[in-house]
Specification:
Oligomer: single chain
Number of helices: 4
Distance between the termini: 65 Å
Order of helices and strands: EEHEEEEEEHHH
């Protein structure tokens, strides 16, 4: 059996009625997937397969959490996962993906969903993932503040707040310095 053999769903044996498959996606699963984004986690996956007029509808329901690095302080953080998705598959000549339908070779008659499960988990992780307010590594946040050379209104969300989670009274957004070499370009920007 291959390392993802347990994630094979045999479609040609499903004639009528739905069938439910359950998986525990744990550290061992993420290690086998060998992707840098997620190394640890525990996600419960329920996959319901329903044959429908020559197609097979796979309904995925994922719940749990994964451990990923915080974008701000790089410490590990827990990201909750709660995701539902549907996938359609049908039997054909060779494996391919066409218009949201996965074609599975009729000679094999099964689809391996290990990579689909991983992709659905990745889709549930926000682009910017940071600790909740006050939970970032204080040492790292202090070092980041020391090296920031942006203007206070040059942050990503336009709020003027670069670090909202540290209650350090020694730092105010007015202390953010700009590199003097760029000051001349600021005048060009303001005049246009």
């Amino acid at each position: 059996m291959s390392k993802f053999g347990q994630y094979n769903v045999v479609l040609k044996d499903l004639n009528e009625g739905s069938r439910i498959f359950e998986y525990e996606l744990n550290d061992e699963y993420f290690k086998k997937i060998d992707s840098p984004e997620i190394q640890h986690g525990k996600v419960h996956a329920i996959v319901q397969v329903q044959p429908k007029q020559g197609l097979y509808e796979l309904s995925f329901n994922l719940e749990g959490s994964v451990i990923i690095p915080c974008d701000r302080c790089l410490d590990d953080m827990t990201q909750p996962i709660q995701y539902k998705e549907k996938l359609k598959a049908k039997l054909g000549d060779r494996f391919s993906e066409e218009d949201e339908i996965v074609i599975v070779p009729e000679s094999e008659g099964s689809i391996n969903i290990a990579w689909f499960l991983y992709e659905f988990i990745l889709l549930n992780i926000p682009i910017k993932h940071v600790h909740a307010t006050g939970e970032c590594n204080k040492t790292m946040v202090t070092k980041l503040r020391k090296h920031i050379t942006r203007q206070k209104d040059d942050d990503e969300d336009g709020s003027g707040v670069l670090f909202e989670d540290d209650e350090d009274d020694d730092f105010t957004p007015d202390e953010i310095q700009t590199d003097p070499r760029w000051d001349g370009l600021q005048n060009i920007k303001e005049n246009n």
